């Protein structure tokens, strides 16, 4: 009697006959995350509709004594951000860097060159109003053309590999000018030209220097997403599809895969989507999990994740180790260095992420893993999220009102607005709204008025704009010490904290302050926690920031 094996989404059910030997060449991680095998052989006996495993062998498993190294497998992901591939010279250096790891067989993920994404967006915005006849004169279009054609020339590769894209880009801008509008869907298609061209140039260059490489557009190899243009989520079906394609091609004809970061394909619309700004990090971790690779490397222009944003405070220093939870919290609360969702696939696949500096490869960088030694850890990093809206909501019915919190959150759910930080008492709630979710929806003021209107039906509402969240990422087992020190520093600087939340997170304490005093707070906190004695630096706040 035969039996049917149902695996997971992405795999066809398998009909089993008696004593059949099964040989999977598809990767396992999506449905067996603890094993990074690429190839599993099972000898199964099928009797009376019941299936027994007689024999099992893994071609490659991660860690432990059962490891059977496979010389031919892909080993890691190497993702290079826009700053790492900003010019022909940088691309040459990145190629050299990849080749300096002869034991690695990487999947390479690239972002658009330098500031190409910003230029494309700006070209689109100008096209809405400039009129069709002026599109070809747009300075941003000239910049994009010049950057990519010059790079092709300097790398010594045929410019014909990108000429179709440059032609289509101009056509698209003409279309936007004609329609006098740019939808979110159009925006995603527009920015996709950046990654499509950088990867083509880089793959061509590797091939030119005798390193076999193959270019892939993520939307063609199984990156299936929601249809939330400009901020799409990756769907589960992506993992088996991407693994099948990359692994299959690698086995049949090995060539370094060069994949576009940031891009996907909407599952309903079949149109190009993007994963939110900085989304190439997420592309990298998704590939890492899909293929069950040994490591995911994200190469940036800083020596790893730093103790705070170096643009706010130049004495920021690299953090050697982080857990996935710390890194996720850090990214979610605004550290530009990592995409907010990028830790999820790495954590699910338990694949270490290394943040490295492509301008300074010798620097050790930051290693992000499931756990780390926290015995000495107090504060790890300080993160700032600006321009946050805060709401104070007080129940009109006062004490003992059953279901007040539920009603408040139902309003946010109905309006599709996500909440960041929350502090509650029985009759009141203070919360902050995620600015990125609001910004991407453009109707910001009308939406806020609507939220206020709905909440006023059940509560007294005070809407406070221009606030910042300062997140103290660290060992919350030492929360008393962190809070004591932080409040001492802030009091020394005359800053009044408007809300504090330790929340369910075990790694983050959030403080809400005015936007105008936030940078001062970060610098003072950094000085106190990472540099000198308590309150060692009290910045001259009052004269510089009228808000204090
Ligand atoms: N805590 C932080 N650690 C490191 N970099 C940070 C941090 N906060 C902000 N940054 C900024 O993030 C930048 C790196 O992120 P990003 O520009 O997205 O890199 P890439 O484009 O190379 O992927 C750094 O140049 C730095 O200015
Ligand atoms: N090019 C996209 C995607 C990306 O991830 O870029 P970067 O790796 O340079 O942050 C952006 O600018 O958002």
TrEMBL record:
It catalyses: L-aspartate + ATP = 4-phospho-L-aspartate + ADP. It is an enzyme of class 2 (transferase). The keyword rRNA-binding does not apply. Pathway: Amino-acid biosynthesis; L-lysine biosynthesis via DAP pathway; (S)-tetrahydrodipicolinate from L-aspartate: step 1/4; Amino-acid biosynthesis; L-methionine biosynthesis via de novo pathway; L-homoserine from L-aspartate: step 1/3; Amino-acid biosynthesis; L-threonine biosynthesis; L-threonine from L-aspartate: step 1/5. Belongs to the aspartokinase family. CDD domains: AAK_AK-LysC-like. It is found in: Plastid, Chloroplast. It comes from the Eukaryota. InterPro entries: AceGlu_kinase-like_sf (IPR036393), ACT-like_dom_sf (IPR045865), ACT_Aspartokinase (IPR054352), ACT_dom (IPR002912), AK-LysC-like (IPR041746), Asp/Glu/Uridylate_kinase (IPR001048), Asp_kinase (IPR001341), AsparK_Bifunc_asparK/hSer_DH (IPR042199). Involved in the first step of essential amino acids lysine, threonine, methionine and isoleucine synthesis via the aspartate-family pathway. Its EC number is 2.7.2.4. One of its GO terms (biological process) is threonine biosynthetic process. Residues 393-471 form the ACT domain. Keywords: Amino-acid biosynthesis, ATP-binding, Chloroplast, Kinase, Nucleotide-binding, Plastid, Repeat, Threonine biosynthesis, Transferase, Transit peptide. Gene3D superfamilies: 3.30.70.260, Acetylglutamate kinase-like (3.40.1160.10), Aspartokinase, catalytic domain (1.20.120.1320). GO terms for molecular function: aspartate kinase activity; ATP binding. The gene is AK2. One of its GO terms (cellular component) is chloroplast. This is Aspartokinase.
